[in-house]
Amino acid sequence: MISSTANSKVKRLAALVQKAKMRREERLFVVEGIRMFREAPDEWIKEVYVSESFLRKCEQENDKESKERIKKHHYEVFADDVFRKVSDTQTPQGVLCVLDMPYHELESSVNSWMADPQRAPLLMLIEDLQDPGNLGTILRAGEGAGIDGVVMTRRTVDITNPKVIRATMGSIYRVPFYVVEDMALAIDLLIKKGVLVYAAHLDDSVDYDEPDYTRPTAFVIGNEGGGLRRETAQRASQYIKIPMAGQVESLNAAAAATVLMYEAARQRRKR
Questions:
Q1: What is the spatial order of strands in the sheet that 45-51 belongs to?
Q2: What is the mean pLDDT of residues 50-73?
Q3: pTM greater than 0.85
Q4: Does residue 142 contact residue 178 with C-beta atoms inside 8 Å?
Q5: 29 φ, ψ to 5°?
Q6: d(Cα 137, Cα 168) in Å, to the nearest integer?
Q7: Residue closest to 106 by CA, chosen among 172, 188, 22, 28
Q8: 3-state SS, residue 187
């Protein structure tokens, strides 16, 4: 059992939790909590860490599922105060794991989707979003709506940020994500491949429930404060808006994205 916060493994793990640059360089990220541990794909798991009280609780409650999953992978035990040192939560559940970061290449995925005449991909494009809760919620709602992936700019909040991961409630394992340098170029690629791109924008727009989303479709959402960059918005196939009643000017990014994704899902169910 590791009982010192000066241990090199503890220091490295704490840095991996806190530093996006380190996660990008090592192509690793950390997830925490029983649910996130149980749902993590086996092939992604590199390291598992548990607290001594978590192991004791597993024995007391005869939690066979957790015990078997822990034993399936090499694991280290931390003293409770050491575990709190590396945890990103106020009340740690006592288990976290280091995972390989998946890599998906956008063009090859689009080629695969468009080669199937029975498939009409549905994508969410995110430009420079900064709120971790918004990004995590979009992934979670996107899984529920049946999207094929999320494309985001590198300036978007890091998807492996612990707050983003918690907000996904496990959807980060099941919704492919793509990081691009330039959203305008990504939109050009999608349109070239036959995907219609709809930008949430007030200028010269139609109500969001008017277009046909049963065809290959992508929605693009911009930064919380500044919206979409002009060069990005100009690339869209069409502008759409969500009408607002009362004195509300707009929805936040996650709410707007959810409305759009579920409208597409509704149309596809009806089809």
A1: 28-32, 95-100, 45-51, 75-78
A2: 88
A3: yes
A4: no
A5: -150, 165
A6: 6
A7: 188
A8: helix
